[in-house]
Design goal:
Endonuclease III, domain 1, 2 strands, 50% helix, binds zinc ion, mainly alpha
Length: 84
């Protein structure tokens, strides 16, 4: 570990078993922020190993996050060739 976010403040070390639940709670609490924001929020209070991986997992399994991610609908690829 070359860095320490917890140097100057008290951080709670979060065990892997509750990490997903905690991240999900953060997601709900902060209206589904981006992965970057989630990491930032998390790091402000907690510390956990593999948090990036866990955030990835939580946000990709959260359908609200998926919706938020794909919000710019006008950037959708052209699908006018739908032959129906
Ligand atoms: Zn979410």
């Amino acid at each position: 570990m070359a860095f320490s976010l917890c140097e100057t403040r008290e951080c709670l070390v979060v065990p892997r078993s509750v990490l997903d639940g905690l991240l999900t709670a953060l997601q709900i609490q902060f209206s589904h922020p981006s992965k970057y924001q989630t990491k930032h929020l998390f790091s402000g209070y907690f510390f956990a190993l593999d948090v990036d991986k866990a955030i990835d997992l939580v946000s990709s399994s959260c359908h609200i996050c998926e919706t938020v991610k794909s919000t710019p609908k006008h950037f959708q690829p052209q699908s006018s060739e739908e032959a129906s």
